[in-house]
Amino acid sequence: GFCKSRKLVEARGWLNMIKLHGLEPSAVTYTTLMNAYCENRNLHYMLDLLSEMKAKSAGPTHVTYTVVIKGLCKQWKLKEAVLLLEDMYTEGLTPYQITYNTIIQCFCTVNDLEEKKIGVTQIY
Question: Which contacts (CB < 8 Å, 24+ apart) does range 57-62 have?
Answer without folding.
Answer: 57/24, 58/24, 58/25, 58/26, 58/27, 58/30, 59/27, 59/91, 60/27, 60/30, 60/31, 60/91, 60/93, 61/27, 61/31, 61/93, 62/88, 62/93, 62/94, 62/95, 62/96, 62/99
